[in-house]
């Protein structure tokens, strides 16, 4: 262009100039928007010119965009390519010849360019050719332009290997657009030489181009051509799999960029009805055998292409072979960084396997996937574990049962085998986790017989060993008398978690029916346990012999279970059956426990079952009503670390809600009361009740000791008060603290029995030694205070956790109709917890939970407002609510207090 034209370019509309900034720095969405706006602006400017004359704005834009293709800014190349392609499509006045001249002029290599600048120029030239091809304008010009573009792309591909793939992609696009006549006249002479070289030294780019020519122009690239130059009439068949893999490996030269030939090859394998399994077997040893990153990357990406196309279980087994799965596990759970391409592709592969499992209706294929992964030696890491867990949840009912049977058989073989083990130790543990998952699987939720079979298997191997084979007792077909403690422990853990999950899980149309089905299943499990205990043929034996008291407790529990199970399924009977089932499980869970709550439970059951019961109001004061004793048992269960215990307690509470009395409710609200600082609390001693009872039995023996202490105190009454106080403090010091003091004092410490009036040692100590002694003592007292603070915080944390669990009970209660008095009993403890949590951040979780329970209470109480509390009590409650509101600032709390006011 002339110098005058360059000067005129400075007067380009600012709106147009701004679009170039947007094109070079924006996201894809902004690039598309800026391109559309640029085209509109250029159309307006072009209207001032004749049809064959470019406006200066259009001429400037095309030139700047062509130059920008060689820019070192990646976003500029993308944005400029899109804009240039659209301009070529919309403005026929920009001819192909002029465009090619611009490429030659502005993307030509100067002699003094650096290596980086040359690379940018080559990339810009290839992008310019691709832009012309994709615009569709190349075919509108002279046929010689087609030759020129193909030659240009081949030339660039020879200069820069990393640009070879996009250059050949451009040629493939030209081949796809050309008619047979134009292809033979203009394209074929340029590429014929590359396509005649045959298998030997064939690159991925040439092979991809050959496949395209074979599909688009088969009259020229026909069977005779293949027979002459490739020694075959068919490229894709079993004999050529190894050769094809060699070509695919050549394509890894652009790693980590994945060559497009992968997808082309897979599609052709499908079109030619080749065995995908055999194809993978021909290459897995090559891509996974050398542990080269680029080959591993190729292998995993090919798996991503092949797996969704597999139709049979046999092919799935071939693709997910032991070698393949081991390499996948090694990389997905290895020490790869987040941005590592291998980690990305292996994670994607795991997701793809899950998606295949989800969409697959073939149970054989689902089983093939699960077995292929589980059979791999070694314990999977976090990512594989997540994938396996997701896979199990996607299994159909048929596949789940087959897989469950496979797990049970494999575990039995593992237990029986000495050497070699069929699977590793950690794989065995993971299999048990899968068995636990299968118990509450959604696809088999309604099959309670299957759930029972799994629970029986877990129960048997948790606490028994099979001494000899027997078909008379289920799951005793094989002798299993020895098992490692680690596996036994996992059996027990899986059993207990299965029982908990099944109680939580909704297996029927409603939660009530689900719990009823659960109760029936666990009763049958208890019956199976009774069969094992009554075995007279010495087929099974307990791992740890059952204590006489524990066996007596079991007989008592099972007797009551049979009695309740035969009765009408009322809410009360339902609740007690759940409690007896819980006690039955507890006998095995904690063999050393006295199961002391069992006697109280039996008494409660008998009183609740009496046909002519005394009213609660006539119950003697010294003897609490059965519902109060039962409430204490439920609170005790809520204090346990067992989720199973807490779930049972919640379900029992729901059944017993109609029987809750104000006295029973007071036991619950007492736990929820907010304590003042320094106030003692014994709520956390619930689990130690058994020890407290033992202490009470020994009170008589301690009376004599108490008398001796009193006599000693009376004999020392004449001593100085300060001396007496110091003696009391001395008695309270624990041995650990005393030891710490002695250690800090060092040689200055006075041993018991030594004379502490020796002043010579004190006189011999220097000031520096005294200072060191002071510092050591200060540290001891500081650590002591820190430990006490830590213990106090831990106590508060446990108390808060216990209150959260009790709130679960309360939430169960408020979902049922309650009398006005019971509503008032709950109202103020909940409000106090909400206010207390607002003041202290560490109680915020407890406050939020209380707030949620209060909302349920408010909604339910409004609906069931027929049962009104005593008027006088209601008035007092209103006054209390008003007083409570005076100390609250938070808006949400004020709204809750307002709701409480209107509720009363």
From TrEMBL:
Q: One GO MF term, please?
A: DNA-directed DNA polymerase activity
- Biased composition regions of type Acidic residues, renumbered to the chain: 685-735, 751-767
Q: What class of enzyme is it?
A: transferase
Can you cite an annotated GO cellular component?
nucleolus
Q: Does the keyword Nucleus apply?
A: yes
- Give the enzyme's EC designation: 2.7.7.7
Q: Where in the cell is it found?
A: Nucleus
What does the UniProt keyword field contain?
Answer: Nucleotidyltransferase, Nucleus, Transferase
Q: Which Pfam families match?
A: DNA_pol_phi (PF04931)
Locate the region Disordered: 678-767
InterPro entries the UniProt entry points to? ARM-type_fold, DNA_pol_V/MYBBP1A
Record family assignment: Belongs to the MYBBP1A family.
List the protein's name.
DNA polymerase phi
